[in-house]
Amino acid sequence: MSDAPSTTGPADAAPYDALLLLSFGGPEGPEEVVPFLENVTRGRGIPRERLVEVGKHYFLFGGVSPINEQNRELLAALRKDFAEHGLELPVYWGNRNWAPYLVDALREIADDGHRRIAVLATSAYAGYSGCRQYRENLADALAQLTAEGRPELTVDKLRHFYNHPGFVEPMIEATLAALDRLPAQTRERAPLAFTTHSIPTAMAESSGAPDDPARGTPGGAYVAQHLAVAGLVAEAVAAATGVADRPWELVYQSRSGAPHIPWLEPDICDHLVTLHEAGAPAAVMVPIGFVSDHMEVKYDLDTEASAKAAELGLPVARAATVGADPRFTAAVRELVLERAAVERGESVRRCALGALGASHDVCAVACCPNPRAPRPAAAQA
């Protein structure tokens, strides 16, 4: 751990007067699936018939993505945690791609009289789609509010929380619980497959700030940060189980790009084949790249990868994501208070596990560049 969190003293969120939970969004009925996917892929020229094909994943679940309900649970948990700890900070929620939309959430914030907003994005790591694109979304929404003549808002995105104990420790516990669900005779030799969203290799290599220490690792900050978390979880699992030589690997899922563009590999399904051929008796899939059990966990792991494992005769268990775990909501509170103290010019003790230390507060202009063309982004230097 780098610095211990400061949890004593009054819960002073000044200068912030609201927190915005900023997420991806998802459909909540069959009729919303294709319009939602059109929002996600806008500007890429993807034919509607292709979107209907992709939408079949959602139709398997009644056309409902779990992500919105999971965000409602997180929203309620944050409000409860804040109230219990004397943090008088209202919490709002807005999405990039579906209702409640980001711009509507900011309108509500402005109409309620708030002007300085801390933003929690439901993505723990550096990268274009997980960080800068959200900041571009914020810039677009703020510009729209300005055009409507609404009061000016200032937004500050909270730092990446991938190595905060409140994010890592629930994953350690979930991995141990998944191991316990495997057949007893397989547990000691079952490897761990840490999974995250695959992205184009060029995007991975440019992820992070130019002066980010994680950029020194091949793959840029995106891969380095995931490897750091996987290592923390694997080390804790080894200590808890007494199995020091348990194999583990960072693998990828949910690729969605053109086949001629290189993306991060190996894919989880290919990795399960490799494990089976190497004689692994079982495996645990640990989705460290995701905050909650949304569609890319429910379909890509619980449906597709689990089907591949069944085809191979390879027992698998999937670790739960962090979701609204009380340790995570406490971590969000700590991050808000930490950033508020920074903005007041006070010294802070930052909580982070592992060698990479706490991430930066303010993104550099060159952070995680837009792969298509530069666009305005909020919450940057």
Question: Mind explaining what this structure looks like?
Answer:
This protein is an alpha/beta fold and 381 residues long. The protein folds into 2 domains: 18-161 and 324-343, Rossmann fold; 165-318, 3-Layer(aba) Sandwich (Rossmann fold), CATH 3.40.50.1400. Helices cover 41% and strands 10% of the residues. It contains 13 helices and 8 strands. The chain has helices at residues 33-40, 48-54, 56-59, 67-84, 102-111, 128-147, 165-181, 201-205, 220-241, 268-277, 295-298, 300-312, 326-343, and strands spanning 18-23, 91-95, 116-121, 154-157, 192-197, 248-253, 283-286, 316-318. The strands form 2 sheets. It has a 4-stranded parallel beta sheet with strand order 2-1-3-4, with helices on both faces. It has a 4-stranded parallel beta sheet with strand order 6-5-7-8, sandwiched between helices. Strand 3 (116-121), helix 6 and strand 4 form a beta-alpha-beta unit. Helix 5 packs across helix 6. The longest helix is centred in the middle third of the chain and has 22 residues, at 220-241. The radius of gyration is 21 Å and the shape is globular. The two termini are 27 Å apart.
What's this, in brief?
The protein is an alpha/beta fold. Helix content is 41%, strand content 10%. The chain is globular, with a radius of gyration of 21 Å.
Task: Describe the protein's topology.
Elements: E1 18-23, H1 33-40, H2 48-54, H3 56-59, H4 67-84, E2 91-95, H5 102-111, E3 116-121, H6 128-147, E4 154-157, H7 165-181, E5 192-197, H8 201-205, H9 220-241, E6 248-253, H10 268-277, E7 283-286, H11 295-298, H12 300-312, E8 316-318, H13 326-343
Parallel strand pairs: 1-2, 1-3, 3-4, 5-6, 5-7, 7-8
Helix pairs in contact: 1-2, 4-13, 5-6, 7-9, 7-13, 10-12
